[in-house]
Amino acid sequence: MERRLLSGVTEVDTFPIWQDATTLSRPDPVWPDFEADVVIWILLPEGKKQERWQQPYAVAVTGPSEVEVLLTKPDVTEDSEDVMAALEIAAQTGNETAFVQTASGIDWLQRPAADFVRAVRLALAAGAHLLARKLATQGARLHPDHLELCKMAHILAPPRVVDVDVPASPSVRANQAWLRLHADEYKGQWVALWEGTLLAVGATAREVWDRLESTDGVMLTKVF
Amino acid sequence: MLLSFEDGRPFARGAATYLDHLATKPETTPRIFVHVQIEHILTETVIDTGAPYLVCDPEIADRLDLDPSSGYKVAPLRIRGHTVDGTLHRLCLTLLAEEGDSLTLEVSAFVPCLQPNQLWDLPYYMGLLGCLEWVRFAVDPTTNTFYFGAIDVAH
Question: Which H or E run includes B124?
Answer without folding.
Answer: strand B124-126
